[in-house]
């Protein structure tokens, strides 16, 4: 790289700090590593229905079939959601969100809390009080893909539809 190019590149660095966050999150929004309810935990789960593991979330290739009452390891997950534009009815404690700010509800997080996107960052906020509690927010705008490992080491993905027991560490 020539010195002139290097100096030009360095001159642009201060402007990078002022780059605005996107106005809205990607749609669909994919929250990798999410566990979408209170006390949700990745650990040894037991199938309560037969499960077909796919090569990737929303994949078409079956990599393994797991019968009912089989122990598997819940490794990780992804919550895929359609962001819902919301105008905050009040400030949310522990976040920079103030009354009147525009945020995007992403997915349910448990006990009245939702994961939201605000100015490029995510926060878990309580939607059980205020105007947000009357919004059409439920689990229909989200899908939870979980990565499973079988006892013989096969790994694949499945759309969670309550076909596993022991996902809740609270009981």
Describe the structure.
There is one protein chain. This protein is mainly beta and 171 residues long. It has one domain. Helix content is 8%, strand content 40%. The chain has 1 helix and 12 strands, in the order H-E-E-E-E-E-E-E-E-E-E-E-E. Strands 1, 2, 5, 10, 11 and 12 form a 6-stranded antiparallel sheet that branches. A hairpin with a 2-residue loop joins strand 7 (102-110) and strand 8 (113-118). The longest helix is centred in the first third of the chain and has 14 residues, at 3-16. It is elongated. The N and C termini lie far apart (60 Å). Residues 1-19 have low confidence and may be disordered.
What labels describe this entry?
171 residues; 6-stranded antiparallel β-sheet; 4-stranded antiparallel β-sheet; 12 strands; disordered N terminus
Summarize the amount of helix as a percent range. Answer: under 10%
Shape field: elongated
Structural class: mainly beta
Mean pLDDT over the full residue set: 86
DSSP, total strands: 12
Roughly what fraction of the amino acids lie in strands? 35-45%
Q: Runs with pLDDT <50, length 5+?
A: 1-19
User: How many helix segments?
Assistant: 1
Question: What is the element string, with H for helices and E for strands?
Answer: HEEEEEEEEEEEE
Query: What oligomerization state is this entry in?
Result: single chain
Radius of gyration from CA coordinates: 20 Å
Largest sheet: 6 strands, antiparallel
Task: Kindly report how far apart the N and C termini lie.
Answer: 60 Å
Number of spatially distinct domains: 1
